[in-house]
Amino acid sequence: QYRLEESGGGLVQPGGSLRLSCAASGFTLDYYAIGWFRQAPGKEREGVSCIGSSGGDINYADSVKGRFTISRDNAKKMVYLQMNNLKPEDTAIYYCNTYPPGARWGQGTQVTVSS
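RE: above sequence
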């Protein structure tokens, strides 16, 4: 069964780093572009970054350019989001999904940036 599971979130101080992981199961990850999305309290879900099926075609939201790096390992069925120089406004629940996103969303992983 199609499943994407996020992990790696936590509480971090401003300027800190986190690496989020997205584990795929139940489908052939190699065939799909994958995106990271986030939803902050009281706001709509927004796209953060996406990566093409073979690792090219990478894009970032302007708000995270130069700080976040997306990558994938199709052999391990994993997609990652390295987040550096985190800011309080990065606080959100982070989700991974196919890109464009499918209808099914996982539980997400909470990222809180606070001193």
